[in-house]
Amino acid sequence: MKNGQKGRLPLKRRRLKQQKAKQADKTAKLEPSVDSKAPLSDSLRANENTFRSIYDNSSDVIFRPFYIGEQVKALLIYIEGLSNIEEIDDSVLSPLIKSKADGDTTVDTLINKKVAVSDVKKVTTFSDSVKEIASGSPVIIVDQQTSGFALGLSKWENRSVEEPQAEMVVRGPREGFVETIGVNTSLIRRRIRSPKLKMKAMEAGEYTKTAIKIAYIDGVADQSVIKEAASRINRIDVDGILDSGVLEEYIEDHPQSPFPQVLSTERPDIVSANLLEGRVAILVDGSPFVLIVPATFYSLLQSSEDYYGRFLIGTSIRWLRYFFLLISLFLPSLYVALLTYHQEMVPTTLLFSIAASRAQVPFPALIEALMMEITFEALREAGLRLPKQVGSAVSIVGALVIGEAAVSAGIVSAPMVIVVALTGVASFTIPRYSASAAVRMLRFPMIFLAGTLGLLGIMLGIIGIIVHMATIRSFGEPYLSPMAPMKWRGMKDVLIRAPWWKLNTRPRFTGETNDYRQADNQKPSPIRGKD
Amino acid sequence: MRRLMVMKKWLITPVAILLMLLLAGCWDRTEINDLAIIVGLGLHETEDEEVQLSVQIVNPSSMASGQSGNSGQQGTGQLTTMEKEVGKTTFDARSKLQEKVSRELFSGHNRVVFISEKLAEKGIRDHIDFLARYTRPRLRSYVYVTKGVPADFFKVMPDLESSSAETARELADLRIGMSVEVKELLQMTADASENAALPIITIEGEPPHSYGLRVQGAAVFKHGKMVGQLDDSATRGVMWIRDEIEEATIMVQPEGETGYISFLVLDATTKLVPEIKGDNWTMTVQINAIDDAVENHTTLDLMKPDTIKRLEKQLEEKVEQRIHIALEQVQKDMKADILGFGESFDSKYPDKWEAVKDNWDEKFSEVTVNIESDVEIKRPGRSTSPPALPEDEVTNE
């Protein structure tokens, strides 16, 4: 942390310098500068002028002057499209305009007696008002008053809650997060109703003023992780955070690593489950992906469906996933190493058929493998980016050209196509896209190592990857825990998916403050039911 | 300046690693299509007392096309080719052979090693050293002694398998006759007794119309030289003693019957129990076998316990008889301990073994052998009483 603060100073300074230069520029152009920290004055005209200069050249900001009780001047400011106009008309404007002429017009009286809106907030400074207006709450300022009030009547177009496209389940809730942070918090709150669920509000981005919420369960989550998350977010001093992916990169422990150290998900049920395990969720406005910290490597390999299905099946599917993780990382490199250095290790008859199919291939196995893997990645990327209508064309061309035609033209061998296809399928069994991307990327250095050093190279690669993974941490939790450091307690949710009644303790690192998550003896049995 | 240093450090490490990989280079990289995959190695001695090395090399492309439906001969060519060369030593011959084979000779997938009878008589010690020392040929190849020149064996186009080497391997895998891997041969020759037995293989059918191979008997080696050959039944006897029997058929002709009953040995175990009393060395061979009746040409009812008892007795005699045939040849005539007696004495009486070690061949021939066989007929077969006989003709005792 000390280093962080040290490094932060010059950065902050440079930014301030820039701002000063900008301001100097503004004054040079003789534009009215506004001290937004200043409190509202009691003159409506002065306040209006200040607001108008703040929202200079902003045609989407609406100023609506009106009289309260035909006497006292007032001004309504809101941004077009961010506020519920009908509600403003019915519950605010009409009662105020129709109120008695000689009534009390102090802000408190207005809030308490006149305005039929549940969410009303008093604002006293320009900066507060601007913040409220920006978040869609119309602000009303009244003549002769040094404060105004903001109405929580924000309403804008947002996507409805849908099934997350990137994280499908067969069994389990089909709700996914949306781009609006309020909806997202409500989705979590609906699952965890205890008041112990806390949502700490933060903000980041010089211009975007992105709302960020740190969610955790008080008494379950480790306070140090919460503090660490908050301090890391506080540190961020950038123009804007447009997606949680941007924030992720700013708060990660080891940004150089290919492995994601933050778990991101679109599913409220996954976030809730992780909160219950003592982890901390970070919600970012404008992004349907919620970040969960700390994340371990194994948590990236868990799917929510592991927990909703029967535990035996969940366990075997988890094993299948582990196996295919290895396949997708090592199969092409093993193939290359065996074919170029260790032919004696291939079963004899298999060697004959591989040799036969490779007879016409002009490239060495290493080049062939790299070529095919890169082509496959290109196909995947193309299929992902193209409009849906064209996407099917790409897959047809890919399957035909890369598969059938390339083999019959003698450019690649059929076994290589099988290897690449199997690798591709294997990489999609990893439930987290960011993790599967890491594995797919690491495949290439592995192939290269295999092609230059054979099995020795593969071993070097494996050692390198494992050492790297053992080195990194995510918010204090070792990345490979509970495997390294070895904690048997955590194995029941890593090696296998133990039945729910046996998952009685929280993971070691995240759930230390509150070990037990359920009562003992929860295993169902007919005898216990009769008690 | 510091920034630049950091940048440099960042750049230098990956670049250095990359260059290191290039340094290691792919110098021993061989593409699979540049390999001549050898499946059979043959060793023979020419008239000029030079080593003749013959190899069987597969032609993968025709092998693959043969697999995909075409009848083997109609493919792009022969499934295998045979190449041979002579040299002062085995490796010398191999080096000369490489001069005329366009692909790198690769014996990592070698299936069999054929040693000609002639070379076997001269002694195989020197050549075994090549198989043990040169790291490429696998130690799991099967070793055979050929009746004839190995090169001829590699020219045989078998009906069922893709190559004659493959045929020989499959025959060894069946364990009908003896099967010895290079590794086992090395163990046998390195043993205290220094004796070994190898299966003999012959060509079926007259060349060029030969269509297969046959395992026939075994060759007995003493101090690296072939000293004699055993016929099929003696070989079986040896295999009984060596506990190598996996599947065997035994026929017995019960007393007072004209037909035979065939039994299939399901499980046979042999234990050697050595004993030294004074100057008297005895070896007890304990055999336990479980049999299954598979064919009954007699009128006997195999459901009768008495009959079974009698047959069991006869079977035991039969097994002992086989072992005696083997002992007669191996122990008395050749005086070559290929039965593992030496090891057995060595492990139980190391001191006394040490004394006779150098004179073991003589001592071996004097060892008294007791055979204790216990054969059990477990199942009389699917049909119980002789099915082809009317009930009144079944012998009832």
Automatic annotation (TrEMBL), chain A:
<feature type="transmembrane region" description="Helical">
    <location>
        <begin position="447"/>
        <end position="470"/>
    </location>
</feature>
<dbReference type="GO" id="GO:0009847">
    <property type="term" value="P:spore germination"/>
</dbReference>
<protein>
    <submittedName>
        <fullName>Spore germination protein KA</fullName>
    </submittedName>
</protein>
<feature type="compositionally biased region" description="Basic and acidic residues">
    <location>
        <begin position="22"/>
        <end position="34"/>
    </location>
</feature>
<feature type="compositionally biased region" description="Basic residues">
    <location>
        <begin position="9"/>
        <end position="20"/>
    </location>
</feature>
<comment type="similarity">
    <text>Belongs to the GerABKA family.</text>
</comment>
<keyword id="KW-0472">Membrane</keyword>
<feature type="transmembrane region" description="Helical">
    <location>
        <begin position="322"/>
        <end position="341"/>
    </location>
</feature>
<keyword id="KW-0812">Transmembrane</keyword>
<feature type="region of interest" description="Disordered">
    <location>
        <begin position="512"/>
        <end position="531"/>
    </location>
</feature>
<feature type="transmembrane region" description="Helical">
    <location>
        <begin position="280"/>
        <end position="301"/>
    </location>
</feature>
<dbReference type="Pfam" id="PF03323">
    <property type="entry name" value="GerA"/>
</dbReference>
<feature type="transmembrane region" description="Helical">
    <location>
        <begin position="417"/>
        <end position="435"/>
    </location>
</feature>
<dbReference type="InterPro" id="IPR050768">
    <property type="entry name" value="UPF0353/GerABKA_families"/>
</dbReference>
<keyword id="KW-1133">Transmembrane helix</keyword>
<dbReference type="InterPro" id="IPR004995">
    <property type="entry name" value="Spore_Ger"/>
</dbReference>
<dbReference type="GO" id="GO:0005886">
    <property type="term" value="C:plasma membrane"/>
</dbReference>
<feature type="region of interest" description="Disordered">
    <location>
        <begin position="1"/>
        <end position="41"/>
    </location>
</feature>
Automatic annotation (TrEMBL), chain B:
<feature type="domain" description="Spore germination protein N-terminal">
    <location>
        <begin position="28"/>
        <end position="203"/>
    </location>
</feature>
<keyword id="KW-0472">Membrane</keyword>
<comment type="similarity">
    <text>Belongs to the GerABKC lipoprotein family.</text>
</comment>
<dbReference type="GO" id="GO:0009847">
    <property type="term" value="P:spore germination"/>
</dbReference>
<dbReference type="GO" id="GO:0016020">
    <property type="term" value="C:membrane"/>
</dbReference>
<protein>
    <submittedName>
        <fullName>Spore germination protein KC</fullName>
    </submittedName>
</protein>
<keyword id="KW-0449">Lipoprotein</keyword>
<dbReference type="InterPro" id="IPR008844">
    <property type="entry name" value="Spore_GerAC-like"/>
</dbReference>
<dbReference type="Pfam" id="PF05504">
    <property type="entry name" value="Spore_GerAC"/>
</dbReference>
<keyword id="KW-0564">Palmitate</keyword>
<feature type="domain" description="Spore germination GerAC-like C-terminal">
    <location>
        <begin position="216"/>
        <end position="381"/>
    </location>
</feature>
<keyword id="KW-0732">Signal</keyword>
<dbReference type="Pfam" id="PF25198">
    <property type="entry name" value="Spore_GerAC_N"/>
</dbReference>
<feature type="region of interest" description="Disordered">
    <location>
        <begin position="375"/>
        <end position="397"/>
    </location>
</feature>
<dbReference type="InterPro" id="IPR046953">
    <property type="entry name" value="Spore_GerAC-like_C"/>
</dbReference>
<dbReference type="InterPro" id="IPR057336">
    <property type="entry name" value="GerAC_N"/>
</dbReference>
<keyword id="KW-0309">Germination</keyword>
<dbReference type="InterPro" id="IPR038501">
    <property type="entry name" value="Spore_GerAC_C_sf"/>
</dbReference>
